[in-house]
Design goal:
single chain; binds iron/sulfur cluster; TIM Barrel
């Protein structure tokens, strides 16, 4: 990049915390990243993928990650410090309680389907309390929302499916940036055309979209409402609603790296395989979900 005027472009990089082996190497990695890019500073630098797997390490002061990155910011080698996250709400809370005041942006998976399905709604509300703007990743859920089945597309008249997805994001005031992967110039032109105008959805359009999202997700997985009635009845202390939410994501995505990653971070006695099939939970479930059968199926799918 060094042949270009440094003030003519923005450059972002991330600390690769997806690999726990990197945790003790923040200085070495950061220096190498600058060297490889042949630049003096990054405009944006992120704690990469804050999640269940790495939150303990990210918060562990012995690695000095936050301290080191803040020092680089003071030196002007990082202009804006933020983070990306695929973690669940409790993980996000822990991270923000520790470093929220220093975070200038959060890159989050956000789209109309995940508003309820992945609880993005509550994550957005939490980030709002810290005044942290949101950069959206997966605005089309890996392209899935650009190619929805005709039965759902039929309900979304008047706009293309992509426009519905982007106008939804324009309706969330906390969103300041949308990162959309584009595979060809037609997609680029279509995106530019949509984003030329700021046209948030009205209340009725929002309802239509959420109905479609509900229909799309309710046909796979189980209708758990996360009421938590079942949890106190489980002799194994399993976080049943959380496991069922992961099950739904796994079914909907036909296997997903997020679910595999999260299940991988759970201790053996809290994984779906720890269920002993006692059926105590099922007796109190207002949705009549056959929880032990679902957890058994989850194990099979994970295998
Ligand atoms: S069936 Fe499984 S999940 Fe349900 S209460 Fe028994 S051990 Fe817990
Ligand atoms: S009782 Fe049923 S609906 Fe409520 S959290 Fe448990 S599984 Fe979900």
């Amino acid at each position: 990049m060094k042949k270009y005027d440094r003030s003519s472009f923005y450059l972002a990089d991330k600390f690769p915390g997806y690999d726990l082996n990197n945790m003790p190497k923040v200085q070495e990695i950061f220096e190498k990243q600058l060297e490889k890019c042949q630049v003096e500073y990054f405009d944006f630098y992120l704690f990469h993928n804050v999640c269940e797997k790495n939150i303990d390490a990210y918060l562990d002061e012995k690695y000095h990650i936050h301290e080191y990155l803040m020092e680089q910011k003071k030196k002007g080698r990082i202009r804006h410090l933020g983070f990306s996250s695929h973690g669940d709400l409790p993980v996000l809370k822990r991270f923000l309680e520790a470093y929220g005041e220093d975070m200038e942006f959060c890159q989050l998976q956000l789209n109309y389907l995940d508003w309820d399905f992945q609880n993005a709604k509550e994550k957005v509300a939490l980030l709002k309390t810290y005044g942290i703007p949101i950069w959206v990743m997966e605005p089309l859920r890996g392209g899935k929302l650009a190619r929805i089945d005709s039965e759902y597309a039929h309900a979304l008249e008047g706009k293309t499916t992509i426009e519905w997805a982007f106008r939804f994001l324009q309706s969330i005031p906390e969103v300041t940036m949308v990162l959309s992967g584009m595979s060809d110039s037609n997609q680029l032109l279509e995106n530019i055309h949509i984003w030329e105008k700021d046209q948030p959805l009205n209340k009725k359009e929002m309802e239509t979209l959420f109905n479609v999202a509900h229909d799309m997700t309710s046909k796979t997985g189980v209708p758990c409402t996360a009421c938590h009635y079942c949890t106190s009845h489980c002799p194994k202390g399993l976080d049943i609603p959380r496991l069922l939410s992961l099950y739904n994501e796994h079914c909907f995505s036909n296997g997903s790296f997020i679910t595999t990653m999260v299940i991988g971070t759970l201790p053996a006695d809290k994984k779906p395989s720890a269920c002993i099939g006692c059926h105590s939970c099922e007796k109190v479930c207002p949705q009549n979900i056959n929880i032990p059968e679902v957890l058994k199926d989850f194990c099979k799918r994970l295998d």
